[in-house]
Each structure stands twice: as structure tokens, then as C-alpha cells.
Amino acid sequence: MSEESRKIPEHVAIIMDGNGRWAQARSKTRVAGHKSGVETVRSSVSSARKLGVKALTLFAFSSENWQRPESEVSVLMELFMFVLTREVKRLHKNGIRFQIIGDVSRFSDKLQKKIKESEELTKHNQEMVLSIAANYGGRWDIANATKQIATKVLNKDITPDDITESLLNEHITLSDLPELDLLIRTGGDYRISNFLLWQAAYAEFYFTEVLWPDFTSDEFEQAINTFDQRERRFGLTGEQVKK
Ligand code: IPE
Ligand code: IPE
Ligand code: MG
Hints:
Layout: E1 11-15, H1 19-25, H2 30-51, E2 55-62, H3 70-93, E3 96-101, H4 109-122, E4 128-136, H5 138-154, H6 165-170, E5 182-185, E6 204-207, H7 217-229, H8 238-242
Parallel strand pairs: 1-2, 1-5, 2-4, 3-4, 5-6
Bound molecules: 3-methylbut-3-enyl trihydrogen diphosphate (IPE) (2 copies) and magnesium ion.
């Protein structure tokens, strides 16, 4: 298939799963798995940009992940800080806009400050948007949007009749980006784990057994090629969409 005719998803999201099992299989600590996973984040960002993906959204830490052993959580936070410090300049150089989605209020002041600086530095970049979901949950996202809308109703800025799908959508994260086209999950499980519940309404799903640290550019490319072969019908018949 020629590169030109291949349909590239505008917005790709990834549930980066399997770091722990990758490490376990090598008799390493789970932390070593997460460190190795960081390298895969870098290669995926670069692959996405090369392929012409407009938005890449990565699930790094879920609202439920706080319940992991404290030692693992604190290393993940340190790793997060380290990566932000080391990588954001490179993202900026490559024209990538960076943002965090999720409830950042639970992060340390230092980390929150770093996040703000990184978002500020890269906010005018146009090549691609990289969103990292951290302390993110799909249910949190919807509840948060609802809270904002309720406040508007209370302030009489809108009435309950103004509440439509499109209004709710405007208050949900990522609504300024192209619709989610492709959702990838590595690590062999077939679930959404409270990721982009609202945004994934018509996304194509791609599940692979490959563990996140082993998800190479070739694996990424394979997911993109699969997307090209999917027929997206959005509720219509096959005949209608072929027209
Ligand atoms: C995903 O890898 C990374 C995070 C959730 C932070 P896991 O740590 O969940 O790896 P497994 O699923 O235990 O192998
Ligand atoms: C989903 O992975 C969250 C991230 C990849 C950050 P989990 O490993 O937390 O998901 P479950 O627990 O297997 O559903
Ligand atoms: Mg996991």
C-alpha cells in the first residue's frame, strides 16, 4: 500500500499497559519496567509526528493508580518530574504542544508548577498536540464537566434546556482536538480502564498482546495500518458510507 493512500488517524490515544509484567519477565523491579516504558513514550511521540497524526493522547496514570503500593506511586511521580524536565525542550523544538489532562491538584506543588511551565512554553506549537492523562479518569472527566455546567445554571448563564450533547462535550477534556479516531491498548487486556469514556464513542479499538516497553515504531505502524482497513459506519449502512 502506498503511503499516500493510507488513511492516517488524526487523533490516537494509547493505554500504555504492561510495564510491570515486562519487568517481571526479566526479573527486574516494576520501576525498571516504567523506566523502560518512558523510552517507548519517546519513540511513539516521534512515530506519531512522522506519520502526520495531529493529536496523541497517552494514559500515564489513572485515578485508580494511587491505590498501588506507595513506593511505586512515589517513583512514578519522580519519573514524571524527571521526564518533564528532560523532554519538554525537545517537544518544543519539534513543534509539539504539550498538555496534561486529569486532576492535577493532587500532585505536588513542584510538579504542578513544572506542568504549568511546560504547557505555557509549548502552547503555540502547531505540529501535534501531546496530551498526557495523569490522575485521569473518564468518570472524573464527565463529573467535572457536569460540575462546570451546574455552576453556569446556578449563575443563570444557561438554563437546563441549553444542556445538549454538544454543550457537555465543550466541557470535556480534548474537545478542542479532532475526535478520537483510534484507541490502542497494549499489554493484552481488553478493557478501557476508565480512560476516555466520552471521547471513545466512535473510536476504533486496537488491542495488542505486546507489552508497552516492547511497543516499537513498527508496532505503532501496524496499528495505523489496521485503522486504514476499518470501515467506520457511524450508525449508517455499509452501502451508505461507500457512496
Ligand atoms: C502501565 O503498566 C503503567 C501504569 C499504569 C503506570 P503497569 O504498571 O500497569 O504494568 P502491568 O499491567 O502491571 O504489567
Ligand atoms: C491503565 O492501566 C492505566 C494506565 C495505563 C495508566 P492499569 O494497569 O491501571 O489498568 P487495569 O488495572 O489493568 O485495568
Ligand atoms: Mg497494568
